[in-house]
Amino acid sequence: MKAVFLPGNKRVEIRAVEVPKPRQDEVLVQVKASCICRSDLSLYYGNAVVGGDAAGRCITGHEPAGIIVEVGSAVRQFKKDDRVAIHLAVGCGVCAYCRAGHFHLCAEWTCLGFTADGGNAEYIAVPERNLLRLPDSMSYLAGAISTDAFGTLCSAARKLGINGLSTVGIWGLGPMGSAGVLAAKALGGKVIALDPIAERREFAASLGADLVLDPTSPMAREEIMDFAGGRGVTAALDCSGNGAAQNMALDVAAPFAKVAFVGESRETTIKTSDQLIRKQVSLMGSWYFGVSEYDDILRIVETGKIDLEKLATHTFSLDEAETAFRLFDERKTEKAVFLM
């Protein structure tokens, strides 16, 4: 089968490899859609954010969806021809975090596409417990987007308690931030979307953002405060990982606001007294979603009538992998997806 590898230094290799054989507790999924994520670019450049030295040796892709074509002898809840998306973290299955469905917090976890073979291939074998059942009404393309891209931001938005009374600031309007706009709007929030790239601001507006701003504008903070009634935002999501954006989110947070950092960064300096303590702001990190959250995520997609396919501005075949990663790296796409 064809499979995509990222050995570093902006190299993209399409290799012919054996179709994996599922173990007793695994299924074999014929991949129909698999998304490219900003974290994949760490593999593209050779400085993986997950896995360290072990990363870069596996088939890439941690956001796949497809159809089951074979099941192991111990598989009980899924069967051949079931349509599924896949949770990216393979945990030990028995620790407290795994039993709660937070496989990505397991001390022994492996990550699809980084330290375990992922979904940028024609087939993938994964444990049954990692399967996320797709409704018949959801396409494979939407199913792939429903995991890391939308699921992660939906989980973060729920942690922030976003509702009809919320004014939400979202910094960084790549695929994650754009998904955050959809999630926050579906939960009832009024959304301020911020990015220095004009095309991204326009895209966020098309998704329903109530106000779009260039965060580098000298008037941006004043416009945020005016929109938020002078009090500041009640919830904030940073998807950029940029220190200036993270500090801006904290600066314009209202008293008792909740702020989530989603974008990866090595370190950030903040002003704890002014930004946190004296405003009694809650600051949290939010990383992926627990497998038990997925049914609620699907309900939010359904009740909010969210068209997840809007996030996919470009689709590619596996043979076009080099072009796909180059354009994604050059920020000429929003969500880029391999379709098989």
Q: Please report the number of helical segments.
A: 11
Q: Biggest sheet, open or closed, and with what strands and sense?
A: 7 strands, mixed
**Spatial separation of the terminal alpha carbons:** 12 Å
Report the sheet-strand fraction: 25-35%
Q: Count the beta strands.
A: 17
Average predicted local confidence, pLDDT: 96
Alpha-carbon Rg, integer: 20 Å
Keywords: Metal-binding, Oxidoreductase, Plasmid, Zinc
Family: Belongs to the zinc-containing alcohol dehydrogenase family.
GO molecular function: oxidoreductase activity, acting on the CH-OH group of donors, NAD or NADP as acceptor; zinc ion binding
Pfam families: ADH_N, ADH_zinc_N
